[in-house]
Each structure stands twice: as structure tokens, then as C-alpha cells.
Amino acid sequence: MKIGLFIAFLFIAMAFQATFANDSLDSLLIRLDHAIDAHNDYSRKKENIIDDLKKKAGKTSPATIDRYEHNMLLYKEYKSYKCDSAILYLNHSIHTAHLINDIHREYRSMIMLAYLMGSTGMYKEGVDILNEVNRSCLPEDLQVEYFDAYYHVYGELAFYTQNKEKARVYSDISDRYKDSLNLVMPVDCSMRAIMIENDHRNSGNYKEANRLNDIRLAQAEQGTPEHALTAYHRSLTYRYAGDKPNQKYYLALSALSDIRSTTKDHASLWTLAQILFEEGDLERAYRYIRFSWDETVFYNARLRSLQSAVILSLIDKTYQALIVKQKTKIQNALIVIGALLPMLMIALLYIYRQMKRISAVRKRLQLANNQLKKLNEDLKQMNIRLQSANLELTESNQIKEEYIGRFIELCSTYINKLDAYRRMVHKKISGGQVKELLKMTSSQSALDEELKALYVNFDTAFLQIFPDFARKVNALLNEDEQIILKKGELLNTELRILALIRLGIDDSSQIAEFLRYSVNTIYNDRAKIKNRARISRDDFENILLTIR
Q: How many C-beta atoms lie closer than 10 Å to residue 285's C-beta?
């Protein structure tokens, strides 16, 4: 059971790692595409640096160390940028060193020239130059470069020669120079780290090769030739290990640094193009190999042109065949489209007519909707008015009910009082108490009591309908001019005037008759109350009518 779980976990981890690697590779390829698009910008920066160096070199005397150093700086800029120019400035350096009789600088430049020729396919020329170096006169600090140049040239010869017997001979010579190189090479030399990494790779110890490569990658800055070379060596390890996803990743990483450092002499991109071609990614493979070929032609190295020509030819033929196939598909599609075009025109005409009908129907529906919306709005307004009318009617009915009840009660009370008064008058007259009766009828107190009772009755009935009337009236008045009721008062004269107006009695003469005041007094009191309002005096009584 545990073994089964472990195997399942292992497969899940491998699948996750593969997915992550693919995502990383896709992202890296997009960055590589952007770098290819921007390669002219990198080249312009390189050309500006070279132009500045040429101007500075032109200001130095021909047979001087300054001229030699400027020539070497130009060589370093051209080394991975343009092969023939790099060779030219190395020859200038050799010539300048010879003129100033500096054997150390002369041999150093010759060794560099031989190494460069070995890298670009000029093997015989490289060996001839190395043979011109008098080993007995060779400075000790140039021995590493000297043996490394021999090791490199013969190693390249062994790798690229078509003669298998010669390949073994060249390989043996390269190995002997490698042994010599190991004897003179310092322990902490970066060249030794590369050689040890290569040895581990060739012997199948890929884990150790990658560990050493990790150290070199950490020390190399991205976008430099050193980083490009280190990433390329990493891709070789994954190639030998059969790990194609990681091989492609580090080839892309190497190619990205090549382009950013304007290195035209690179194998990473066309090797990546070959793998992508084999995997069926023809579009990207064609783009990469065409770009790589253009860079190779610009670099002008015969070997690189031969190396990329074969894969370029294969990818180009396949790509052209794909284009022809796509053209055929397009032609067939055009024929089908041509055949379907009349039917499409008929369908479009039918659709156009239907759309016009639909448009007309939509317009009619829109018109009907607008009318319906207007009717709904009118109905809404009518409902609002009806609700207001119902509210007023309800209020009016409530007022009528209240005051009719009060009226009937008062009528009954006054009939009883009138009958009692009749009996009292009859009794007084019958008893001969005419003087006492005359005294009673000449007094105003009875009338005052009845008026007071009438107003209390009115106030009580009104407040039954509008219990918050006084508070709401004060809300309409200024704070310092509000109506203050005395203790025990239900309403005072001002509030009774306003109460009668609220009940719909707007005539000042009617109000004056009810309250036993003159018309002028009522008119003046109404005006004073309006002047105390915090709202417009013209709107005061209209707002008063809305109090509920």
C-alpha cells in the first residue's frame, strides 16, 4: 500500500514539474521573441561603443602601447559580433606589438587569433599561427592560453572532420594538449571549472556537472556572453541526459543572453530551432533559424554558415511546403466561399428584410409603450389626487361626525336649559317677583358662561380631530414668536382663529361672529400671525390647511 502511494506521489510530482517547466519555457520563449524584435536596438548600442573606440584609437600613435590596447578593445567588441573585423584588429594588434618589439603582447594576440580561427572553421590557419609561436620564448603567464588554443583547435578539428581516422588523430592531439593544460592551469582558474564540468558531463555524472554549472550561472550576469556560454553548457548536460524540456529551456536562456549581448556567433538559437522543428513548432522554428542565419551571415564565419545551412535548408523547405499547403487550403476555401456567396447574399437580403420588419414592429411597440407609460403616469397622478381627495373626504366626514354629535348634544342641552329658564320665569312672574326677574335678565354673566362653555366644547371637539394642532402651528412660526397656552387652556383666541380657518371657515366676518370680535380685530390678528411665520406669509394659510 505504501509503495503504491509513493509511486502515485512520484507520478504527480513529475507531472507538476513538467507542467511548471512548460510554463517557464513558454514565458522564456516569449521573452526571446521580444529580444529578437529588439535586436536592432542592441546592435545600435554596440555600434556606438565601437565607433567611440575607433575615434579614440585614431587619436593614438600607430607604434604605441595605447594603439595596441585600443586594438585589443576593438577585437573584444568584434569577437562575438563580426568575425572578419575581430581578425582584422587582432592582426593590427600583432603588427603593433611587433613594431614596439613587445614579444609578450605579440604572442598573446597570436594565440587569441589562433583560438578565434579554430572557433570559426579556419583550423589550418589557426595551427599555423600557433606553430609560429616560439615556445622557448613563451612567457609563463601565456602558457595556459597557448595550450588551451591548441586543445581547442584540434578538438574542433576532431569534432567537425568527416574523416574518422583523422578524427581519432586530432582527438589524441587535443587530449595531449589538454594534459599539458592541466599541468600549467591554476587550481582556481575558471577554465579548469569548465573542463571539470565537461568531464563530468562526458562521463555521465550529470548531477555533479549541474552542481558546478550552478556555481558558474550564479557568477555570470544575464545578458552577457559568459552567461550565454554557461547556459549553453547546461543545455548540453540535459541533452546527454535526455531531458529535452530542460535542454530547450537553457538553450532559450543562452540565446536570450546572446541576443542581448549582441553575440552573432551562437549555436544556441539554431539548435533550439532544430528541436522545435522536430517537435512540429514550425512557425517558431522557421523564425528562429531565419534570424540565426541572418546573424551568422552578419558575423561572417564560414563554419557557422555551414553548420546552420543544413538545418536552415530543411526547415525552409518544410516551411515552404507548409505555405504551399496553406495556400491550397485557402484557394479551396475561396472556391467554397465563392460557391456559397450567392446563398449568403440571398440570406443577407432575407435577414435585411426581416430586420426592417422587426424594426417597424419595434417602433410601433415603442410608440405603444410610450403611450402606455404616459397613461400609467396619468393614472398615477389621478390615483394621487384620488388618495388626497379620499383623505380630505375622510377628514371632512370625521369633522362632520364630530361636530354633528356636538351640535345635537348642544341643541339638547340648550333646549333643556331654555325649558328650565321658561319655568323659572313663569314661577317668578306668578310669584310677583318681577323686579328680581328684571335684575336677572339685565346681567351679562349668564351669557359669558354659555360662551365659555361653547368655546370649551369647540376646543375639545377640534382637538379630538387635530390633537397636535398647537405644536404643528408653532412649527410654522419663528422660535421667539410662538403661541404659548396658559395653564388649563385648550386653545386661545389665536389658535381658535387658525382652527376655524383649518375647518374651512375662511371668511373673517364669520370668524368674528363666532368669536364675538369685530371683523377688523380678526383681520388684524390673522395678519399678525402671518407676519410671525418662518415661511412665506402668502403660503401660510395654504400650509395650515394641510395639517392633519
A: 24
Angle at 76 between CA 73 and CA 79, to 5 degrees: 145
Helix (H, G, I), strand (E, B) or coil at 162: coil
Contacts of 75 (CB under 8 A, 6+ apart): 86, 89, 90, 93, 112
Beta bridge partners of 533: 477
Give the per-residue pLDDT at 310.
56
Task: Tell me what percent of the chain is helix, strand and coil, each rounded to the nearest 5.
Answer: 85, 0, 15
Following CA atoms 481, 483, 487, 489 in sequence, which dihedral angle do they give, to the nearest 10 degrees?
Answer: 160
Answer for the pair 521, 512: CB distance below 8 angstroms, yes or no.
yes
Kindly give, in sequence order, each residue whose CB lies less than 8 Å from that of residue 194, ignoring residues fewer than 6 positions away.
Answer: 216, 233
CA 182 to chain CA centroid, Å, is: 57
Q: What is the DSSP letter of 481?
A: G
Contact 241, 210 (CB under 8 A): no
pLDDT at 6 over 50: no
On whether the CB atoms of residues 89 and 83 are closer than 8 A, the answer is no
**Within a 13 Å sphere around the CA of 331, how many CA atoms are in the beta-carbon half?**
6
Query: In a 3-state reduction of DSSP, which class is residue 133?
Result: coil
- Residue listed under C-alpha cell 568584434: 78
Give per-residue pLDDT as tens, 254-291: 999 999 999 887 788 888 988 988 888 888 888 888 88
**Short-list 492, 428, 414, 418, CA closest to 455:** 492
pLDDT digits (tens, 9 = 90+) for 147-196: 999 999 999 888 888 888 889 999 999 999 989 988 888 888 888 888 89
Find residue 342's DSSP bridge partners.
none
C-alpha cell at 437: 326677574
What single letter denotes the amino acid at residue 484? I
- Residues of the chain with pLDDT > 70, as a percent, come to 82
pLDDT for res 41: 94
Chain centroid to Cα 379, Å, comes to 50
Calculate the CA 342 to chain-centre distance.
45
Amino acid at 531: N
The whole-number average pLDDT for the span 405-432 is 69
Joined together, the cell numbers standing for residue 3 give 509503495
Phi, then psi, of 476 in degrees rounded to 5: -90, -10
**Residue 197: which region, alpha, beta or left (left: phi > 0; alpha: psi -120 to 50)?**
alpha
**Across the chain, which distance is largest between two alpha carbons, in Å?**
180
